[in-house]
Amino acid sequence: MSDHSPDPARLSFRAGIGGEPIVSDIHATPALAFEPAPWGAWVVTSGGHPVAGDRLDVRVEVGVGCCAELRSYSPTVARSTKRPRKAAVSSTRTHVSVASDGMLTWVLEPGIGSDGSNHVSDSLIQLASNARLLWREEFLLERRFDEKPGTWRSRLRVTRDSWPVICTDLAIGPVSPLWESPAVLNGAGAVSLVVVVDPGQGASEWSSTRTTVGSATGMALPLSTPGIQLLAWGDDLVDCREAVERMLPACGVAPWVEARWHGEPGPVVPGLGGEDHLVVGGDAGLSGSGSRYQL
């Protein structure tokens, strides 16, 4: 098994009629592939990746005026290995760019830290000044009586017209020194992070909010740019998703955001460049009542 993917998995979209995503470039690797769909593409990962020592690269480009979605069929499970020389961190580096008047919905299934693994997910999203974004980052720990949990670290950076929008660095699992601190994540076993950037809304339309659902605590905080960050953490991913879903209408997001969260065909979004975009919808519902991922 290779430690390193020699070439990144690549996917590029250009706009068709009404902003419909058309694949203009696609390249798969042994660890990751893309399956085009009318609304964008499915991300298909290998069951054998990532393991300790793997370094996986993903690059996605959304062209001018294009509205695209990326979803996945299943969670990504990070694993350790019994070979001592392989006892290292695995990583996935994702680089995404969204061009002028484009829109990206990224709602992949969660990452899972299992069996003493140590995985880092590092994502950089570069937006044009009038691009829109809905990004969901979720991860949890696999807990079994006969093995120790893994560690999953998520670094997310979003820029808009080269200016920083948000930079987060969250980690759950025993390798993280602050994981159990009440001032950080209080030993949470699951995290759901959602970032929305929508230049079509004014700064006064966003509002902060807070909620609790079961074991999960959630909060929403407006960004310095037109957008908002929603974060929920707790013992169960279903509770975290429900917390995010409750906060969405309360924090002032546009209807297309809630539609995309549920995987439903979205409304027409007024284009900032003067043309309307048809937000094509997926066929996979991803509401807060999804699987509990009990492995």
Describe what this molecule looks like in 3D.
By secondary structure, this protein is mainly beta. It has a domain at about 10-190. It is built from 2 helices and 20 strands. The strands form 3 sheets. Strands 3, 4, 6, 7, 9, 10, 12, 15, 16, 17 and 18 form an 11-stranded mixed beta sheet that branches. Strand 17 and strand 18 form a beta hairpin. The two termini are about 25 Å apart.
Q: How would you spell out the order of helices and strands? A: EEEEEEEEEEEEEEEEEEHHEE
Uncertain residue segments = 1-5, 265-270, 272-295
Class inferred from helices and paired strands: mainly beta
Give the number of DSSP strands. 20
Mind summarizing the main beta sheet? 11 strands, mixed
H/I helix tally: 2
Beta-strand residue fraction: 35-45%
First and last CA, distance: 24 Å
Kindly provide the radius of gyration, computed on alpha-carbon positions and rounded to a whole number of angstroms: 18 Å
Helix content: under 10%
Q: How would you state the average pLDDT, rounded?
A: 85
Shape: globular
